[in-house]
Amino acid sequence: MNEKLIQIGKNAKQAAYKLSLLDTITKNQILNQFAEKLVANTDQILAANQKDIDNASDMPAKFTDRLKLTDQRIKDMAAGLQQVAALQDPIGNIDKGWQNDAGLLIEKKRVPLGVIAMIFEARPNVTVDATALTFKSGNAVILRGGKEALNSNLALAAVLRAVLKDNGLDENAIQILHDTSHETANDLMHLNKYVDVLIPRGGAGLIQAVVKNATVPVIETGAGNCHIYVDQFAEEQMAINIIVNAKVQRPSVCNAAEKLLIHRDVAKKMLPAIAKALQDHGVQLRGDDRSREIVPSIKPASDEDWSTEYNDLIMAIKVVDNEQAAIDHINNYSTGHSEVIISNNYQNGQEFLNKIDSACVYVNASTRFTDGFEFGFGAEIGISTQKLHARGPMGLNELTTTKYVIRGNGQTRK
Amino acid sequence: MNEKLIQIGKNAKQAAYKLSLLDTITKNQILNQFAEKLVANTDQILAANQKDIDNASDMPAKFTDRLKLTDQRIKDMAAGLQQVAALQDPIGNIDKGWQNDAGLLIEKKRVPLGVIAMIFEARPNVTVDATALTFKSGNAVILRGGKEALNSNLALAAVLRAVLKDNGLDENAIQILHDTSHETANDLMHLNKYVDVLIPRGGAGLIQAVVKNATVPVIETGAGNCHIYVDQFAEEQMAINIIVNAKVQRPSVCNAAEKLLIHRDVAKKMLPAIAKALQDHGVQLRGDDRSREIVPSIKPASDEDWSTEYNDLIMAIKVVDNEQAAIDHINNYSTGHSEVIISNNYQNGQEFLNKIDSACVYVNASTRFTDGFEFGFGAEIGISTQKLHARGPMGLNELTTTKYVIRGNGQTRK
Lengths: 414, 414
Fold this sequence. Notes:
Two copies of one chain form a homodimer. Chain A contains 14 helices and 16 strands. Chain A is α/β, with parallel strands linked by helices. Chain A has a seven-stranded parallel sheet. In chain A, helix 2 (24-40) packs antiparallel against helix 5 (71-86). The two termini of chain A are 47 Å apart. Chains A and B meet through helix 9, helix 10, helix 14, strand 13 and strand 16 of A and helix 9, helix 10, helix 14, strand 13 and strand 16 of B. Strand 16 of chain A pairs parallel with strand 13 of chain B. Chains A, B: Its main location: cytoplasm.
């Protein structure tokens, strides 16, 4: 194990202890100073970013677009920090409290997790967005971003760390790994003594690599093979509106719909209009034989399609015999993110809500609502597709844990 | 990866789906039948257990005592099943519900985790106790017990599985690994596709091995290097009562106190009486130089003592200069289980509660209260010393997760 990394772990743990004792007013003041100083230091941040852009000249435009910072993007990050400052602080909340049989007063109190590590790709905005949420929730953060964004990440973190220092706080509440090697990332996944949770952010490959390797607790986010099932009691225009919104509005994100299942009794009637609406928005359709008999312009889907998250203007369609077939298909192929039934039948809606094993299950709404902001959390660190600790959109509350605070007057156990 | 184990994982996942749809009345009926049939099959269970006892003739008495089943122990397991049947079912509870800005009705609903795996030592009662809680909370369980208890575990599970079969339910809700090799245990720790959480139960060695190896989500339980700090405002008799209770009542368990810290201003006055009370109960004392100057019968403590969980009638004592020194010592050496301050000073009590980073933090009560039954949960699967998902005593609620159930009327995202 890398000695430098162990030192970073120790530093983070110490900083987390101090952070856990800060009151909300102080944390909010710091967040607002973060915002102010980022804007004030725009020139030096952009200069550092330019180095990264120059080094990435061989990369595709999509990649450099994510990497690139601008005046406006720095202002957006600053606005994000101010928004987080305005959110309610979960720390100190009492989830529940009671008196036990021996007369002890027991409270379950919200406290920070401690040290949060994040591994992410070459998107420098994550440095600031993640720090806003971890800092507000009283956690120290260790950030390991993509190597192509290292200069940008270090420049951003330098501004934030200077604010901490100027306020007499521990700079190590925010640490960037300078060493972006795979070996060090792997060591970070095994830093059990210091890391309370590791949250990978990025594509499916990154997240699966972390889940497969890490021994520190991981929260798995962002895999979204989302389904919409149109049953025989669906209203056609509602179905079209929801499907188009879920597929087309922002196809690259995890809450976009990827698959359409439709009941055989309405496929002949509704599928042509649904397919046309999607195709009019540039969506390429793939499907099973039954869907292709109805709409010949649908290309054949392979077995692999059913488990693929396209993140693109592609949708695969399957005609099903009944609701149970739809449910079985979804529970088998889904990543457990978000699934929708479109139906006006009470019983069918209830069955779908009960039987689908995903983080978010909908009747008659777009998958695109699976989002911390849309849910009203005011922030989002990611969307958990695992079942432990957090499931679905994660806001500030999901970056906390609890401890039991117990007040007695001399009780001993009988 | 072991093909048989993959099949066990698939079977468990399928059984979990069916279990998740059972209503509480049915689950309670089955739990009561489990109890009845265990007692009715006492003879064959004891015969199987006798084989294990015969095979373990070389093992120490402590080991065979844990392994041995008797009429009474089978009745106790049956009573445990009936108690769990009587507990409130957490499944279906709505933790919170609200309407978002777009008019969606969002509910956060309690659902089973799915498949719970347990690795435990040669204690056949765990087979029944764990099954009671996993079944009641709607989860399928895969049990890998110590190889020395295999015949007993299989006999117990056969009775439970027969009850499931007789009721037309899926027997694979309860599966025992026949193969107790380390290789298969290791494969189980990597069965990410089918295991939603792995809970090791046993000694520190077993738990650390699981935490270090597993890639499935783990809940770490039961490591308890618990501290009591007597400050300068403590009432002497209360201190003695609590310390003796916490150390002596049941020294082998994780919520027993292992360390005593005492403020220098009261050490001279209180330590002799505290030490005598402990020694009168057969406790061997170890300590730092300052404690040994006051009570010469205290043996010297080594550095290793401060991080050791004795699980025995041993206690290590340290004199500290102030509360912060006590807090720093505890946060450094503790396993994060349970810590106590004995004090009548308001400010000191508050500081201790705020600054100690453990699952349970007490003022003026015994560490022995950290227990699902004492907390009023009516059951306990273990005491979590990690921060993710569950922290402190784990009852039925901690064996569940949530899903968001969302009802709309055609909403699409703007």
